[in-house]
Design a protein that fits this description.
7 helices; alpha/beta; single chain; about 40% helix
């Protein structure tokens, strides 16, 4: 199997099991595009799925774990069997692990460890998922926008991180992404 085979099967699986109204997005940029999560599911939470086929190494995984852990509510590694043991040592306990295997020409997934909620997302990094106008609207709604009319998006994110709870930032980000007109919603 290769990444493309696993990705296609994972996308079909997620489309059939994800709540109606959620968005499934390939290659969602995190940390200002410093990294991209293979598949993201955005609804009431932000879940990310990182794929590692047998053709991949786990060399980049520690850096991906660091950056994903700043933003995602839930994270799951989807890997082939040869990566499972090493990955389980590299991943924080809140990360899920699914093993992808090919059976009778179809890719199947065996959950080995269920993802749990991220205990420590970073408010500033989560806020970076907002476009400038979305961040300004969120601050304006809360009357936290004074003095920021010409501020950069970085300053807006900073104000959000300094004045809003992580839960409020996460809800704001999820709602903003769900409202983006060109992002597909699952039916």
């Amino acid at each position: 199997m290769n990444d493309r085979d696993i990705r296609a099967a994972l996308r079909v699986h997620l489309e059939s099991t994800t709540e109606s109204g959620a968005i499934i997005r390939d290659e969602l940029g995190l940390c200002l595009g410093d990294t991209r999560v293979d598949i993201a599911v955005i609804g009431g939470t932000l879940a990310g799925f990182e794929i590692k086929s047998d053709r991949d190494t786990l060399d980049r995984l520690p850096g991906q774990v660091d950056r994903y852990s700043r933003v995602l509510d839930f994270a799951t590694l989807v890997c082939e069997p040869r990566h499972q043991a090493k990955a389980s040592v590299l991943l924080p306990s809140w990360w899920g692990i699914w093993v992808a295997e090919e059976q009778d020409g179809a890719v199947t997934f065996q959950p080995m460890r269920k993802a749990s909620r991220n205990p420590g997302p970073d408010p500033y990094t989560v806020a970076q998922l907002l476009w400038r106008d979305e961040a300004m609207a969120a601050l304006r709604e809360r009357d936290l926008h004074r003095g920021l009319s010409s501020a950069t998006r970085f300053r807006l994110w900073e104000r959000m991180a300094d004045t809003m709870s992580i839960k409020d930032i996460q809800q704001t980000v999820h709602a903003a992404i769900m409202a983006r007109p060109d992002w597909q919603v699952c039916s």
